[in-house]
Amino acid sequence: MTRALFVIVLSLLSVVPAWAQQAPPRAWVIATYAYPQRDRAAAIQPLADYLGLRARHPVRIRLFDSPTALVDALRRGDVDVAVPNLHGYLQARRASEPLTVLPVPQVPALQADRYRAVLIARQGLEAPGELERQAQTLRLVLVGRDSASGGFVPVRELRRRGLEPTTAFAHLTYVGSHAAALGAVASGEADVAALAADVYDAGRPAGVVELWRSDPIPPGPLLCRPAADVPCQQFTVWLLEAHDEAPAVMAALRVGWPEFGDAQRFTMPVRELLDALMMQVKP
After folding, report:
1. pTM
2. Cα–Cα distance between 178 and 170 in angstroms, integer?
3. In this predicted model, what pLDDT tens digit does every residue of 76-118 receive, in sequence order?
4. Distance of alpha carbon 30 from its chain centroid, rounded?
């Protein structure tokens, strides 16, 4: 009898509890793209911490080289929540994979009005038609292929004027930042540049003139890739509550993205505005 009891006890001890057999949940990946002089990893860490805390779920952050690389990773399933720029958002909208549009920082109206693109040039090119006439001798600078204000928005204007950036100019360079684009024209290293209007307005160096200014450019909403273990709709609810629950989320995003201005909270994006932009712009 004693031996039989011993065997039963030993058998019970060898059974692993069901909770111990379950693998730990996969950490959600919250990601964005790198930008010079901006610590984007620090900018999205409070966002990741907040979503993880609300869900009681592990999270980790990742940083990609460009908005395009970020969206590619999101489409592959390597990223669960992405903080893209407008170019990345528009790329994602054109993808076949199902992606959920999350809220976007609510930029105050006056600051939203200032987020525009400009084309600038060295003095002497401001007369109507002069840019088109001299284009083949001019050096053009853009911020990057993935940039909105320093890329595809002003490129659309150049194409409207009959100037294809890769062929109409003597030389095309991507310099990586808006400050570098402004500096290239100011120093004489370039003749024409595209960049964010607020960067130009803050400097306005001598000898540099404005050729064109765009309409306001909306920021790109956050994106989520739906999956069985990724509650995109719940993320929407939590983000809309973040201004009360975790103000540090938006404070960090503002540091990482100056175009968010003094945004205090998230809001649902104006879909009609983004739909119109989709029709007008081919990134």
Report:
1. 0.79
2. 21
3. 999 999 999 998 998 888 877 789 999 999 999 988 888 999 9
4. 12
